[in-house]
Amino acid sequence: MPKLSEEVKEARREAILAAARRCFADYGYEGATVARLETATGASRGAIFNYFATKEELFLALADADAARFANLWIDSGFEQVLRALLAEDPAWLGVYFEIGRRLRTDEQFRLRWAKRAPDFEQRLEERLRALQESGELRSDVGWQSLGRYMGIVADGLAIRRAAGFQTDDTEALITVVLSAIRPQRA
Amino acid sequence: MPKLSEEVKEARREAILAAARRCFADYGYEGATVARLETATGASRGAIFNYFATKEELFLALADADAARFANLWIDSGFEQVLRALLAEDPAWLGVYFEIGRRLRTDEQFRLRWAKRAPDFEQRLEERLRALQESGELRSDVGWQSLGRYMGIVADGLAIRRAAGFQTDDTEALITVVLSAIRPQRA
Question: Per residue of chain A (187 residues), what is the pLDDT tens digit?
Fold first, then answer.
């Protein structure tokens, strides 16, 4: 086999990831068998496992990319844009996330690996939330930790409702309500 | 076999439910096999299936009871008490709920059955939310539907975070933030 350039390798890796994401969304984590991943990606299992050691690594690479995307969106563009991105996300892919909930609960190693998806996220988020409290854009009568936790809970709740197939037709009202909890409160 | 009185039957049914709940929490929905349910309940499969036609019916009876409990709490005592109850709930049991997410997404019959857990809940909640808007306890610049949806999203998000094993040490601050979104907003 001729040696592939780094560009070609990277492009193949990205193509495998995109097709695998669709496959996981269509069949779920367990249902996305290696045979189905081969069909979806058009790559042999040998080629796939050349890029990702296991199916779990392939899935975690997708989860890593998502975590980085949402973390950057949160930190760079604010929580409202996270809400909008979640409302635009493929519900089937969101569903795959929640299939791994049991594993997160029972598998300590997996939980540690999962928590490391966006490694510097916690620190960058802390800095951002502190700055937003400082400038008066976020309420400061509660700690930034609680504001961050609130936003995480809302994001997860929105994602799981969409994953379960529930529709929302009042996006703007919902965003208004969610955001009013984190803005400075008038006495 | 002597005929059992209604009281004895009802007590046995309740005992099977309580033990099955623990079994589902410990092993998950799939992992709670009939053999494990027999061990947990101390009842034979014949006795169990005398009360519940299938494992799914047994699980749905538990989900029905939970849905009724949370619906009544919401309507009678307010959303703050729902948050407190979720914070006190067994995380392992909450986890079982989210295992069925994929099924909810892909199985229309199951989704219809699931939506019927607390049949008159939607109407009672609507009446309650309208009354709370009327009396000025809830904000009225957005529709009651959006307020109800917000509270549902927060409840689901809190439940899934707890199910995934994350700890909260700022319960009171979190409740303050969540509730400030639904109270009348001062301009």
Answer: 567 789 999 999 999 999 999 999 999 888 999 999 999 999 999 999 999 999 999 999 998 888 889 999 999 999 999 999 999 999 889 888 777 776 777 788 888 888 777 778 889 999 999 999 999 999 999 999 999 999 999 999 999 888 887 777 899 999 999 999 999 997 6
CA distance A144 to A130: 6
- d(CA A129, nearest CA chain B) in Å: 15
Per-residue burial over A153-162, b = 16 or more CB atoms within 10 Å of its CB, e = otherwise: bbbbbbbbbb
Whether B99 contacts chain A with CB within 8 A: yes
Does residue B23 belong to the interface with chain A, where contact is any CB pair within 8 Å? no
CB-based contact B114:B146 (threshold 8 Å): no
Residues of B in contact with A139 (CB under 8 A): 177
| A100 inside 8 A of chain B by CB | no
Q: Do B178 and A178 touch (CB under 8 A)?
A: no
Chain B nearest-CA residue for A143: B173
User: What ipTM did this prediction achieve?
Assistant: 0.88
Q: Which domains does chain A have, with CATH numbers?
A: 1-52 (1.10.10.60), 67-180 (1.10.357.10)
